[in-house]
Structures are given as C-alpha cells and as structure tokens.
Design brief:
51 residues; alpha+beta
Length: 51
Amino acid sequence: MATPAFGLGPRVGRVIHTVGPVGEGGDQGEVEVLGSCYRRCLEVRPGPHSS
C-alpha cells in the first residue's frame, strides 16, 4: 500500500507500507518471507508520476 508522504519533502511523494511475518524465533523462514514482502512492494510500487 502506498500513502502520501506528507511532510517528508518534495522528493518523497509516497510511502510504501508492507506487512511481514510474525517472528517465530528466527528459524522459521521469517527473514526470507520479510525479504519477499519488501521485494514485492518494489515490484508494484507506483511510478514517479502516479498520484
């Protein structure tokens, strides 16, 4: 989900939010799942001229 950046300055138009895994001690693949969440956000992020 992308939301307005409000007071972060003119170069930051939107803030991308993602969900991640619930921590289960670090040995249940959480690192890989979190990485996948962030990669997916970058794949679907709005273009530079999106509102």
